[in-house]
Amino acid sequence: MKRDIKNESLSRELKLESGTINEESRTISAALSSEQPVERWFGNEVLDHSAEAIDLSRAADGLPMLFGHDNSQPIGIIENLRLDSDKKLRGDLRFSPNNQRANEVWADVRDGFLKNVSIGYRINEWVENETDNTVRATRWQIYEGSIVPVPADSTVGVNRSKDHNVGVPAMDKTEDKTVETGGKDDSKIVVDFENARKAALAEGISEGRKLELERQDGIREAFQPYAGSARFEELRETCIRNGMSISSAKDALLRYLAEGNQPLAGDRKDERAPTVSVGEEAGEKFQRGVELALSVNLGLEQDREKVREARNGEFVSMNPADMAREYLRVNGQPVTGSKDAIIKRAMEYRAGGMTSSDFSNILENVANKALLTGYNETEETWSRWTRQGSLSDFRQSSRTAISAFGDLDMIKEDGEYTFGNVSDLKENIQLATYGKMLRISREALANDDLDALGRLPMAMGRAARRKIGDIVYSVLTTNAALNQDSTDLFHADHSNYVASGSGAAPSVATLDAARVAMATQTDPSGNATLGIMGQYLIVPVALQTAAEQLISATYDPTTSGDLKPNPFQNVFEVIADHRLDASLSTGWYLAASRNTTDTVEVAFLNGMQEPYMESQNGFYRDGLEYKVRIDAVAAALDYRGLYWNYGA
Predict the structure, then answer these.
(1) Cα 252–chain centre separation
(2) Are 371 and 460 in contact (CB under 8 A)?
(3) In the prediction, which pLDDT does 171 show?
(4) Which of 397, 421, 393, 400 is nearest to 409 (CA)?
(5) Which residue(s) pair with 399 in the sheet?
(6) How far apart are CA 521 and CA 523, in angstroms?
């Protein structure tokens, strides 16, 4: 049987050599692997331990050391990997001194509670011996080492570590198998247990071989209409050799046909029209798996089920170069060359036109998720007191003040209703665009620099949310003139301003004056008071503590002896923002409810409050270029629900 096990993730487990512990350097030597045969679904696996067989390229600067094969729990590195004369691969495990998890694992290793070390590796080349069903790995690569808490489960043929979906060696240690005998003969129980284990192992190997043969037969059937064409037979064998599923092989065939490739004249044995049915797109599976793995590795995905799904998948342990190589493999493209060349080819290749599963689009989706995470997780105060609106285009628009609508009339019996008069008092509002460019170089991806996909877009998201805060608070601090009367937003003529020299810090007396001034504001005709109530006390950070103490106090803080109740206890919500400190650290504002009174509106293009990202392949420099923008505007709609005291 022709086996296909290339790049399959596997692991092996050995005991730690406790006698080599060095507490000062926090290191311990360990035998990582040997030529001990291990039963797999594909046969008895033997790792060739010769210098030519072991690929240590990923261990040049130290091999990552994890806990329980969990990429989210790095605990140190493995150094000084060497092949000893007893044909064992050994290394020195050095535990991180600045990692809480590493400290805990080191203590358990030092005290003898954790005794097992496991390696993760992939087989690249192998030879088969059908006589004894042995598969000898003649070229294999180690990519990580782990301290594992639970030895391999010897009762199943798959040989998995607990909670880890990669193969590990069977540990046939009968003395570790303890069961309740219930008065039965112990030797009979052990024999029954061993027989059951061997039967299950044989069944698992048989089932694995059956599935492999079905995969190969399915691919050959899909290519049958093109039998005899050397080019199509080469593609077919590539699909089989690279471990493609039947669905992925069919996708590769369709893409090959879509590019205009047909069998050469006279070399096609079957002239029947091909009939190839396609299941779920392999590209869609790849897209979902890679996006989920990157989101988990970058800390963008917190859902426990999705995190578990990613860690059980094949992509979470891959770096960007490995993902680019897999993308090319899924699409039937060459996968040879340096990491830099692989990434360049992956970013330039389009799977049948621009689709969501293109590698560059996948990276953009992850970067966009980081962008939105940064935007949504950034704490800003403007959204708590402003009204959020929508504009459909970039032309200048106007907002009519709702306070301009007259009071309702009493309708007598059989009386007529009259139309309310809407004043011409309107404020102008017009969108502006704010944006920035971001470049992720091909070198950054080749160097496994995930910051380029995570932290940088996240920082741009935070910057976008801060920009909205900047334009909102500039409405208060610039105090521009309103359109309705060409008078400053805060002005003595508006009865909403206490000027320098007359101002004072927030107190029961000054808040009472602000409340009265706001409640007695009149409609545009000047005939009716509006009874507007303040809801938000907006202060610079310099006044935050004093304001919060005032609003939470039971008694008036300025009284002593004969205590007076504080009429403003829990009446206003205190909002403090640092931008006000930069303008005037003594001034403070009172704002009415955004739902009942016009104050300040923040409008977005079509109501889209989140920033937008688009990308393109770099033209002057290799890599991906991202453009981030947000379309927004902040404007004061009316002065009657706003009040400013210059402060002391």
Answers:
(1) 30
(2) yes
(3) 34
(4) 421
(5) 427
(6) 7
The verdict on residue 556 lying in a domain is yes
Q: Give the end of a domain, one of 128, 156, 173.
A: 173
Spatial separation of the C-alpha atoms in residues 10 and 168, rounded to whole Å: 7
User: Mean pLDDT: which of 98-107, 416-425, 621-630 is highest?
Assistant: 98-107
Give the DSSP H or E segment for 262: none
Predicted TM-score (pTM) of the model is 0.54
Provide the β-strand partners of residue 389: 603
Q: What is the pLDDT of residues 127-160, one digit of tens each?
A: 888 777 888 999 999 988 999 875 433 322 222 2
Q: Is residue 624 part of a domain?
A: yes
Domain limit, last residue, from 138, 173, 208: 173
**What's the whole-number mean pLDDT along residues 580-585?**
95
Q: Which helix (H) or strand (E) holds 426?
A: strand 426-429
Check: CB of residue 145 under 8 Å from CB of residue 64: yes
Whether residue 219 lies inside any domain: the answer is: no
Highest mean pLDDT among 209-213, 436-440, 640-644: 640-644
Which positions ≥6 away from 347 have C-beta within 8 Å? 324, 359, 360, 363, 442, 617, 624
How many domains does the chain divide into? 2
CB atoms within 10 A of CB 625: 17
Positive or negative, the CA dihedral 33, 35, 36, 38 is positive
Cα(322)–Cα(338) distance, rounded to whole angstroms?
11
> Is 327 among the domain residues?
no
pLDDT value of position 179: 37
For 253-262, 275-284, 443-452, which range has the lowest pLDDT when averaged over its residues? 275-284
The range of the structural domain enclosing residue 583 comes to 379-406+422-648
Please report, for residues 25, 292, 302, 462, 558, the alpha-carbon distance to residue 458 in angstroms, rounded to integers and kept in the order given.
Answer: 37, 17, 15, 6, 46
As a whole-number percent, the residues of the chain with pLDDT over 90 amount to 35
